[in-house]
């Protein structure tokens, strides 16, 4: 009873303090208070709900039986929209705050919302090595489902809450992408409900134009209702090798060299300054040296990027064996390194041991509760950007990031980009090695100004025939956007499938110049 009185008294004092300081002031200057006392427990409840739901679906095998019925309901909503005169654009009815993108989609308030409740794994075909899933299945959900069966995905993008639909309609990448390409390149078929309410399946051999146009289209060609994704055999561990490298030229040379080696199952780089980095390479294995196993995903373990930094500070190489699922979601607990700005003491051993099991807070809940003041603060003093550039332009691009942003750590992730039709492909006629340069945090550059600095970055990326991930803030004009992306197939299909009255153009949906 005394413990309850203590907790009650503590909460009362907290509420009095919040009232004294003002809720907005607390949310802006002491956000960790709100996150630790409210969002972390709420995030746990979210996880419990979805885990119980997934368990119930698995026990009852309801997903395959109900999928067709759910798709028919989506078709009925689209046909109803047509009967109403097609006066507004359509979009998914999923609230904007539930997406992982930091962008707040205001179009949800003005467009016709089509409710899409599709979040189940439908079928695992071991013979074809393909898994068929609905679009709201998350990476955490899918790896937890496949791993006990002995399967995994060739590309498992970071963060548990990323969904299959978001990774197809946007994009996704992981440290195995130097072998398999982007997430879209591991997909073998899509099923969509189009603007006329029809259901179509597309693949490289069936409705191939639509298959290649769907990735990066951000839901502006139709509603994704299912996808078929390649699987590969899972192994128990990733044997990971850490190597600190100093000097920008040496970092770029070493990273390029390792990225070209197909014997590396995984390649990743973390840059801690302009001339300091740790290059990591990994291979899948079922055997491990027991003394070198590091279960980095356990709640009490140090955040992965901090663990990696120890090798740089000690100036030594190292080898560890990380359980595969822990490796796939190694940056999840710290949301890469974003959580250190929200909970500054989050990597403290005391916090990890006592409260680490509650981390991370749901990104969707962070968005829902951020308020206008925090949104503007983040927009002007915070960047979350992934720029995809040819590997041959890596050194030049890092220098541009340093001058315009000066944000560290920087994430380096290589990927192979095939010369397929669609919005994103190499400039030449051959497959080319690219790299994702990810910057997440508060810029330290003295001349940083959100709009001007990002437009300069976008110009630099266009000049080397690179691409900007579309989940992030984009400041390009329409002409600049279609100079970066190849819109020929996309616009052709929008015309042929009568999408212009049904869905906004992708530029109008995601770019700030169009949304303001």
UniProtKB/TrEMBL annotation:
Enumerate the catalysed reactions.
lanosterol + NADPH + H(+) = 24,25-dihydrolanosterol + NADP(+); 5alpha-cholest-8-en-3beta-ol + NADP(+) = zymosterol + NADPH + H(+)
Give the first-level EC class, as a single word: oxidoreductase
Q: Which GO terms describe its molecular function?
A: Delta24(24-1) sterol reductase activity; Delta24-sterol reductase activity; FAD binding
Subcellular location per the Swiss-Prot or TrEMBL entry: Endoplasmic reticulum membrane; Golgi apparatus membrane
- UniProt-listed Pfam families: FAD_binding_4 (PF01565)
What is the membrane topology here?
Single-pass membrane protein
Keywords attached to this Swiss-Prot or TrEMBL record, sorted alphabetically, are:
Cholesterol metabolism, Endoplasmic reticulum, FAD, Flavoprotein, Golgi apparatus, Lipid biosynthesis, Lipid metabolism, Membrane, NADP, Oxidoreductase, Signal, Steroid metabolism, Sterol metabolism, Transmembrane, Transmembrane helix
Q: What is its EC number?
A: 1.3.1.72
SUPFAM superfamilies (UniProt xref): FAD-binding/transporter-associated domain-like (SSF56176)
Query: RNA-binding: present as a keyword of the record?
Result: no
Q: Please tell me where this protein is predominantly located.
A: endoplasmic reticulum
Pathway field of the UniProt record reads: Steroid biosynthesis; cholesterol biosynthesis
Residues in FAD-binding PCMH-type domain copies: 60-234
Could you tell me the superkingdom of the organism this chain comes from? Eukaryota
Family affiliation = Belongs to the FAD-binding oxidoreductase/transferase type 4 family.
Q: What is this protein's function per UniProt?
A: Catalyzes the reduction of the delta-24 double bond of sterol intermediates during cholesterol biosynthesis. In addition to its cholesterol-synthesizing activity, can protect cells from oxidative stress by reducing caspase 3 activity during apoptosis induced by oxidative stress. Also protects against amyloid-beta peptide-induced apoptosis.
Q: What is this protein called?
A: Delta(24)-sterol reductase
Lineage, opening ranks? Eukaryota, Metazoa, Chordata, Craniata, Vertebrata
């Amino acid at each position: 009873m005394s413990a309850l009185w203590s907790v009650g008294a503590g909460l009362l004092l907290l509420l009095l303090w919040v009232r004294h300081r003002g809720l907005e002031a607390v949310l802006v200057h002491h956000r960790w208070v709100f996150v630790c006392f409210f969002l972390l427990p709420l995030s746990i409840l979210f996880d419990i709900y979805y885990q119980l739901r997934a368990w119930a679906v698995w026990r009852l095998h309801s997903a395959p039986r109900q999928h067709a019925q759910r798709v028919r309901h989506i078709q009925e909503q689209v046909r109803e929209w047509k009967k109403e005169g097609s006066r507004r654009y359509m979009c998914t009815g999923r609230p904007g705050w539930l997406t992982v993108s930091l962008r707040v989609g205001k179009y949800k308030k003005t467009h016709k919302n089509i409710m899409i409740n599709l979040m189940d794994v439908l079928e695992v075909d071991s013979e074809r090595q393909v898994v068929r899933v609905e679009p709201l299945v998350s990476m955490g959900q899918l790896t937890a489902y496949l791993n006990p069966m002995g399967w995994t995905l060739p590309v498992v993008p970071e963060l548990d809450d990323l969904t299959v639909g978001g990774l197809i309609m946007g994009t996704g990448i992981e440290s195995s992408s130097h072998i398999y390409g982007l997430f879209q390149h591991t997909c073998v078929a899509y099923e969509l409900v189009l603007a006329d309410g029809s259901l179509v399946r597309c693949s490289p051999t069936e409705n191939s134009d639509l298959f290649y146009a769907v990735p990066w289209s951000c839901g502006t060609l139709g509603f994704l209702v299912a996808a078929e994704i390649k699987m590969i055999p899972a192994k128990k561990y990733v044997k990971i090798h850490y190597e600190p490298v100093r000097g920008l030229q040496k970092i770029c040379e070493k990273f390029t060299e390792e990225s070209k080696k197909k014997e590396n199952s995984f390649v990743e780089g973390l840059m801690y300054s302009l001339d300091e980095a740790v290059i990591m390479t990994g291979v899948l294995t079922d055997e491990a040296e027991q003394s070198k196993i590091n279960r980095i995903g356990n709640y009490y373990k140090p955040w992965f990027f901090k663990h990696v930094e120890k090798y740089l500070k000690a100036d030594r190489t190292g080898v560890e064996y990380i359980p595969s699922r822990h490796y796939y979601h190694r940056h999840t607990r710290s949301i890469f390194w974003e959580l250190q700005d929200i909970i500054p003491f989050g990597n403290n051993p005391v916090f990890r041991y006592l409260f680490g099991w509650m981390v991370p807070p749901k990104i969707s809940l962070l968005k829902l509760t951020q308020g206008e003041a925090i949104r503007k603060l983040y927009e002007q003093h915070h960047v979350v950007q992934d720029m995809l550039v040819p590997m041959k332009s890596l050194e030049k691009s890092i220098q541009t990031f340093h001058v315009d942003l000066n944000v560290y750590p920087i994430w380096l992730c290589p990927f192979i980009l095939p010369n397929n039709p669609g919005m994103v492909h190499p400039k030449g006629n051959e497959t080319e090695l690219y790299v994702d340069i990810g910057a997440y945090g508060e810029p330290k550059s003295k001349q940083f100004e959100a709009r001007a600095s990002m437009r300069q970055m976008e110009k630099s990326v266009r000049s080397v025939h690179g691409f900007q991930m579309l989940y992030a803030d984009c400041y390009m004009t329409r002409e600049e956007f279609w100079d970066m992306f190849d819109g020929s197939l996309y616009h052709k299909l929008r015309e042929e499938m009568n999408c212009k009255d049904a869905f906004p153009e992708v530029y109008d949906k995601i770019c700030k110049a169009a949304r303001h």
